[in-house]
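This week, work through this protein record:
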Amino acid sequence: MSNPVEDELAIRELVALYADAVNRVDEAQWADTWTEDAKWSLPMVTVEGKTQIVGLWVQAMSSFDFVAQLVYQGVVKINGNTATGRWYLAEHLRPKGDPKGRFNIGTYIDAYVKEGDRWHFSDRRYQVMYNDEGTGDMSGTIIPLSEGD
């Protein structure tokens, strides 16, 4: 029998692992957060299937010198081996060749599925709540995380 507290903690860890993989550009860890038949919706595109989702992410991440995705509070509702959630986050982005960068505040609306003893995203919809339209200054020094951090 499932323990709701353990399930909620596992979903919170899933969300943290996703953001950690974004910040470190860790394709394998990021890919491992999705179900095979997942759907990922962004403001301009929706993709279905883990292979297509990961392909879009790799392409998108290759266009940035720096990305920091900072996840704030979230809510989770569990119903057996499925769950839903909503998370608020900020993203600081510096596209290659653009020291000005961008800043977004958004929300992810999620659906999760428990496969075996692990939770995965089955659906993630990102909605931008605020976009600075490239007015932010991110021309400072990038200091990448070292391995093992």
Observations:
- The radius of gyration is 16 Å.
